[in-house]
Design a protein that fits this description.
Elements lengths: L1 H28 L16 E2 L8 E7 L6 H11 L4 E5 L1 H6 L1 H9 L3 E4 L12 H19 L5 E2 L8 H8 L4 E3 L15 H9 L6 E6 L8 H15 L3 E2 L2 H17 L1
Parallel strand pairs: 1-6, 2-3, 2-7, 2-8, 3-4, 5-6
Helix pairs in contact: 2-8, 5-6, 7-8
Amino acid sequence: MNGIRKDVNIILDLTIVVIVFMVVTIYNTYPKTLYAFSNSNNRAAIVSRGSKEDKIIALTFDDGPHPEYTVEILDLLKQYNAKATFFVLGKYAETYPEIIRRQIAEGHEVGNHSYSHVNMKKVSAKVIKQEFEKTQDIVYSIANIRPKVFRPPYGNYNDDVIKIVSSDDSSVVLWTFYQDSKDWSNPGVDVVIDTTLSKVQNGDIILFHDYVYKPESHTVGALKVILPKLVDEGYQFVTMSELINLSQDRKVLNNFN
């Protein structure tokens, strides 16, 4: 009996190992793209990455515009014909409207990052709505467009955020979990480069910041290496809305395959 029990335990252990391996494999290979759809136009409610089927990257920049760093980033993006999405704070968009106009004119996407960078989990639904709508209105007054993507400060959101953002036919956008360079803290140019390039995959949403409260921006220095490297590796740079649309198309196709 002891021998039989031992054999059964071994089989159970091996079965558990196989199941865990299969779950991890599926999680890492399945395109974790767009899960929740919550408005009439079927726009994704929450996005944290794009389809792995296409060699695309979404560069995103938070907290700007900054009068110096954003301009330097725009110059670099133009040099490499790269499109990006800028999640702007309403208070800075008001201050530097000419930068918002340049971003739109050069084919980039302007997203909403709230008006004053509040933690959405610590304020009322009324404040969330005010922060969101005020920035929507500011961008519209500057560029005659309403942002279609919203990134909550700190990546913090709740049901109120999803409901309010979705009601304006917009998506809540986070970032691919391993693509947070924490460049806002100026960790060093090499750290930003390594964090971005060491694990880069198709469909990544990369988190950068164009507004840092430092006398210099390590993001700008890092991009001088990151952009040509990604170009050499064959990646195409898309805006968040382009990534969402392409990934939704892929999801539809996958459902029929």
